[in-house]
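In response to reviewer comment 3 from the previous cycle, which asked for concrete evidence that the modeling workflow produces usable outputs, we include below a single protein chain processed end to end. The sequence was submitted unchanged, and the resulting structure tokens are shown without manual editing.
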Amino acid sequence: MASTISARFSNDLAKLAHSSPDGIIRIWDSDTSKLQSEYSPSSHLSSTCSCLCWSPNAVWVSPKKKRRKSNQGNELDASDLVIVGTSSGNLLLYSVSMASLYTQMSEKHDDAITGAAVCASRNSLFTCSLDQHIIEWDPKSTKISNKWKADNSPIYSIAISPAEEYLISASRKITVWSIDKLEKLQIFNGHASEVYYLSFVHWNCSNGESIIPYFVTSAVHDRIVNVWQVNPSARDNKNALVSFSLPEDAKDVFLSKPDQKSKVLLMGVLSRTGKLFLFEHILNGPCAKPLRPKVTVQVVSPSRNGVSSSKPIPIVSAGFVNDDNNHISLAYGSSLKLGFERFKYDSSQSEVELVRQDPSACEIVKEDDVTVVRMPSTKNAQLYGPGQQISTSSSYFPKEREQPAKLKRKAPSDEIKEMSLEERVRLSEEKSPLSQAKSGHGLKADNLVVLLEQGLRSGDSRLLNQVLTTADVRVVTNTIRDLPLKCIVPLVTLLTEKMQQHAVGASVCAAWLLALLCHRTSYLMTFPDVISQLTVLQERIQHRTSMFGRVVQLHGKLHLLLQQGKSVQRSLTLQSEPVVSFQALSSRQKSVSNEDEDMASLSEQESFADDDGERVDSEVEDADEEEAMDSNEDEDGDDLKAAVGDVDNDDDDEESDEDGGNVTAAKQQAKARVLASSSSGSEEDSD
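The workflow returned the following structure tokens.
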């Protein structure tokens, strides 16, 4: 939800309307610093104030409120009305002079009202709400004149141009409407969050010249205030003309009425911490770079009891006085008690510190002359009644109960001794967060938000080094997520300084910086100083990594060569015994080797000859065995012939002779083969 503005000065800066957190509206007199009136709505606890602004010059008379005859000739002052919008969607008009509710609209929004603007030419009132609708009210009838859906998201602010030509509404984008036709004319996109402040620049001119419509916007958790120009004919020109950079989150914006000739705009931005930043700029065209504040105003309380440190008092609201001296009215304090101050703007002083008493602080006045009242003693007094005398001796009145004797605490024995100062200091150091961080016991939590915040506030380098050396991604992420917003910028500055130092520490700080960029990018984008620091760091990293591509190529080539060498060595180890070996010989060794070869060939030939001789001998033996067998056969044949000679005829004798001739022929053939083989063997030997 957008930021709710709880305090507003009236148009003449004479009164201040303030809404407390419990929904009670108080009207303060800025001249006397006294509470003028107070209004508590019937449902102020359940539906608090969500919109608060003063009515401009317009006269509204409700038919439900009958004015007295004595007041019929006097019209109601425009600055007397306070427009109040509630979180339940109701719209109220409170009269300061009457110190009561002037009127209440009969209908309401479906959700909280976030902005209101008055159009005097139409005698109407426009409001926007979280229900995505804009309503035009008729204050006299307290009913709705027009209602339309302005956006698909909630609307947080609304404003009307000084000439009452344009109406502007803002959610996360800014839409320009035509009041006559209620049509869209232009859309601006310049903020990433909800635009809670929207106001036109009112020029201080009386000659009736045409005024350029400028308007100012500010968003939630955004440290940029933009100035825009309404120009429906130039639809492409959607960039902000001027941007103002802030060191803290903006809470409210206050504008002066610049002169038509000088065009010098004074702007005051109130931060959430209660500081007021003042800007000065001439509206004569676009500006490329964001502008920084010229003056910083802060209210502090005076030092007491010799203590030099002073307590800051938050500024609640401010406003520019419409004069030539550039005076500024301030309201500071709390909702219980407010103080008011008026000072002159001086651009030569960059910082202005107003030392004032805290109005909400209770002062105890010590009286010098104090009257001591002593009660008379009634120990021996006598009481006289009507008709009798009553003694007031101690026997009549009961004795006061004697107080029992107080038990005395036993003195400590000698066995129990108190710790010395040195032992107490050592024990306190052991329990301190720094000692736990050094020993490693304090770094076992899920996050280190407390230690990191203490180190950033105190500037303790040892504690910061202990925290930033943590490389656990989960711990780093949780710490960055839970880190307060005020510690983010100092942490970025510290990390950029450490990353520009030695490379060993830069590697650890890179994890912290990466977590910051992942989870707090939108917040860092609102700081131009941080962006410049990160730009310098980016250029330094690019310079350091300029040779990274070539180094990676060299690493790849060396890795390829080493892998090839390992593969060759592995193949050589697999073939442990050579298959073929070659050795070069000298001429003498060659002659000796030739002789050895000749001798080896001769020995081989002799062995072959011996084998042939043995083979011939075996064949001769076989032939002799065959002859013996043949002779035995002849003898057997002769015996057969003798046995059967008588029986066989001559023809049989002739056949036997033929058989004997065949045997002899076979014998002769075998001898011839043996002789032929022997002759061939002898020829080979001779060769």
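The chain has a mean pLDDT of 75. We consider this sufficient to address the reviewer's concern, and the full set will be provided in the supplementary archive.
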